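To illustrate the input format used throughout this study, we show a single complete record. The first block contains the structure-token representation of the backbone; no residue identities are included at this stage. The design step must infer an amino acid for every position from geometry alone.
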């Protein structure tokens, strides 16, 4: 089976959830170096120790010398550029951070407000800035993360849906422009932080596979996109059949 042997993987958003699972999975797939990045010094330091401990516990081997961490504000273009300048060439860039967004009826939105602009900054422009700054080796990959709301919008989420939809469309353009670097986007159906149990109780029955996905299950899709050299410009849905079930309920 294909591995990530000899590869360097950077996961921005790797301190928790899916990003953490991707970093752990990359180590297990024999990546030579895995770097996790987040905006919080405490969270990224804690995640680094948890990552080392879990890898050792689950494999019996040490991750020392193979895993590292960085602190970066994804909305700070200068900081993003400095991060990639320091790291140099990498093989795979994974973007799993979410960022916040303003939730309000569109007619009531102040589109000139800082919070409204920050939605696009955190969910769209920051991803483009990271991709533009990254030094990806030929044949490497870039994988972004979006949610399913741009396919199945709900009221008061217009700004978030716009940002996610823009990133989805940009992925195909970047795949053409950056070739032979591969560019894909993945959307998932993972419970939001702080509300996992309540979310699961409400949605378990709407997943055709019978349960809400775990970060480790979703991480397998990211690993596939990194390892498969013959896929680019694609949007991969990992939702346990949630959207199919939702259509049936309409």
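Output of the design step:
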């Amino acid at each position: 089976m294909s591995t990530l042997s000899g590869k360097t993987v950077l996961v921005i958003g790797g301190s928790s959830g899916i990003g953490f699972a991707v970093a752990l999975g990359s180590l297990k797939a024999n990546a030579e170096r895995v770097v996790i990045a987040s905006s919080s010094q405490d969270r990224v330091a804690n995640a680094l120790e948890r990552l080392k401990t879990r890898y050792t516990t689950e494999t019996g081997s040490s991750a020392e010398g193979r895993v590292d961490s960085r602190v970066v504000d994804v909305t700070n273009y200068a900081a993003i550029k400095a991060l990639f300048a320091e790291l140099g060439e990498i093989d795979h860039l994974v973007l799993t951070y979410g960022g916040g967004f303003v939730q309000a009826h569109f007619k009531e939105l102040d589109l000139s407000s800082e919070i409204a602009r920050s939605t696009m900054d955190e969910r769209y422009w920051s991803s483009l800035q990271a991709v533009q700054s990254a030094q990806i080796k030929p044949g490497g990959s870039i994988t972004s993360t979006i949610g399913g709301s741009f396919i199945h919008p709900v009221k008061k989420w217009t700004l978030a849906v716009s940002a996610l939809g823009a990133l989805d469309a940009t992925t195909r353009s970047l795949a053409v422009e950056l070739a032979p670097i591969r560019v894909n986007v993945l959307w998932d159906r993972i419970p939001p932080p702080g509300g996992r149990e309540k979310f699961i109780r409400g949605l378990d029955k709407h997943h055709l596979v019978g349960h809400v996905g775990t970060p480790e299950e979703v991480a397998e899709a990211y690993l596939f996109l990194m390892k498969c050299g013959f896929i680019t410009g694609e949007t991969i849905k990992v939702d346990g059949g949630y959207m199919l079930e939702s259509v049936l309920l309409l």
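Structural context for interpreting the output: The mean pLDDT is 87. The radius of gyration is 18 Å.
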